[in-house]
Design goal:
Elements (H helix, E strand, L loop, with lengths): L1 H24 L9 H17 L1 H12 L7 H18 L4 H30 L3 H4 L1 H31 L7 H28 L10 H72 L1 H4 L4 H19 L7 H16 L3 E7 L8 H19 L9 E8 L3 E9 L6 E2 L2 E2 L13 H10 L3 E7 L2 E9 L1
Parallel strand pairs: 1-2
Antiparallel strand pairs: 2-3, 3-7, 4-5, 6-7
């Protein structure tokens, strides 16, 4: 029974961590190819490594009283396992993998402190061996409660903002790594005290009360440590995300200033041409056809630039669409925009910029390959429909569209290039609880996005 409970405890710990990682990552991070197979294989390896603790503990048992650090390398491996699992199953940088692994580990250790350290070691040490089925049922109920709480509190924040702007740089990576290592060292010290140094006190009747008080203090210390480290990590992540969003705001500001200068210069050109044409209308009849056409084309080009300025009421969207509209005008592409919504402010700035920027860039890449000038058209609609934000983007494409799952398959030599950035778009839409659909009608590609408001 003792061996069974030891293996059960390792299964509880690792299955709880993997379950929490799945809950946090599945709707937040883009998945790698063959996602199900990756998760299954990685989870199996993680569980086998967790089970390795029992025979390793038996082998090292005679030496651990004097040299407790001998088990240290194993716990270093266990600290790395969640990070490697996230990297193997999801498309995320190292800093992101550390963030999700820390959140999962902190949450799982709070459950461990309550279920194992408080319930078993402190209050009812004989309960698991006497009532193993009730103990398993109790663990399932405890984990279910915490999973539901995490799904209600943590997942929405990860989906809508705090992770959106998490960038990968050396400083951020080392800060997260330091927090992760520091947490596991403190946790290992407290658990060693609870599981190896304090239990011998139970054999002394006069120390029973002292033993329980010290165990209770250690349980509370573990919970406090996990909560504090979660708060610190969350604050740092939110700060990094805010810094990334501010960088996007600064970039939008620079682009908006550039577009303002372009618009101002072209308005001046229009005014000058209008003034010249007004006074030289009769003279135009006397100049050559070539000169007349040249002046008309210059004026038309200035008007086209002026018309490229988009005004939707959302400053970030105006800047993005004006940038793309000017780009399209320079390449004889017609970009039409219809925006009638008040719900764009509910989407984080960096998400809005990435989502629409990728979608329009894909459309531009597609129509640039088309020879027929009548088909160099992109149509974007952003509307409110019955408590949903509806985004539709249509454009012509050449060649054939091959779907791989629910995404278009793209190859470097393929004439159709909508595969790039589509995973990023789908990931953002999922984080806001929405859906993304792709369909074609003849040679028209249609991207539809629905986000509940």
């Amino acid at each position: 029974m003792e061996q069974f409970l030891a293996y059960l405890d390792q299964f509880r710990y690792m299955a709880g961590t993997l379950g929490m990682l799945f809950l946090l990552c599945h709707r937040t991070l883009p998945h790698r190819e063959k996602e199900g197979l990756r998760i299954a294989c990685s989870s199996l390896v993680c569980l086998l490594l967790a089970f390795l603790y029992v025979p390793l503990q038996n082998v090292l048992a005679p030496y651990l009283d004097r040299y407790p650090f001998l088990i240290g390398p194993y716990w270093v491996l266990m600290a790395a396992v969640p990070v490697l699992h996230v990297r193997a199953c999801y498309e995320v940088n190292f800093s992101g993998a550390l963030v999700f692994s820390m959140i999962a580990s902190f949450t799982e250790n709070i459950i461990t402190a309550l279920v194992r350290n408080l319930f078993v070691y402190t209050l009812f040490p004989d309960f698991p061996s006497r009532h193993p089925l009730l103990y398993i049922a109790f663990m399932i109920l405890a984990y279910t409660f915490f999973f539901l709480a995490a799904n209600a509190v943590l997942v929405p924040n990860l989906q809508q903002g705090i992770y959106a702007g998490l960038r990968e740089d050396t400083a951020t990576r080392w800060v997260y790594l330091f927090l992760y290592i520091a947490y596991f060292l403190m946790m290992f010290a407290i658990k060693h005290l609870m599981e190896n140094l304090l239990p011998p006190l139970r054999q002394y009747t006069e120390l029973t009360l002292t033993y329980r008080y010290v165990q209770l203090f250690c349980v509370l210390l573990l919970i406090l440590l996990s909560v504090v480290m979660t708060a610190v990590m969350w604050y740092i992540t939110a700060h990094v995300a805010l810094a990334s969003e501010n960088e996007v705001i600064r970039r939008l500001s620079r682009e908006r200033q550039t577009q303002y200068e372009i618009s101002r210069e072209n308005i001046e050109m229009i005014n000058q041409k209008s003034h010249d044409l007004k006074h030289q209308l009769q003279a135009l009849a006397l100049v050559s056809d070539e000169e007349r056409n040249r002046q008309i084309q210059e004026t038309s080009r200035a008007i086209d630039f002026y018309d490229a300025t988009v005004k939707t009421g959302n400053e970030a969207l105006d800047t993005l669409l004006t940038e793309k509209s000017v780009y399209c005008t320079n390449r004889s592409i017609r970009l039409s925009c219809m925006v009638s919504t008040e719900n764009l402010r509910k989407i984080a700035l960096i998400d809005l910029y990435t989502l629409l920027g990728n979608a329009i860039d894909n459309a531009i890449e597609s129509v640039e390959r088309i020879e027929n000038p009548e088909q160099k058209v992109i149509s974007l609609s952003i509307l409110d429909r019955s408590n949903i934000l509806y985004i539709q983007l249509e454009n012509y494409f050449s060649g054939t569209l091959t779907m791989q799952g629910d995404l278009p398959q793209t190859q470097k030599k393929d004439t159709f290039s909508h595969g790039y950035g589509v995973k990023s778009i789908r990931n953002i839409v999922r984080r806001y609880g929405g859906t993304m659909g792709i369909r074609t009608e003849g040679q028209v590609f249609c991207l539809e996005i629905v986000i509940p408001t």
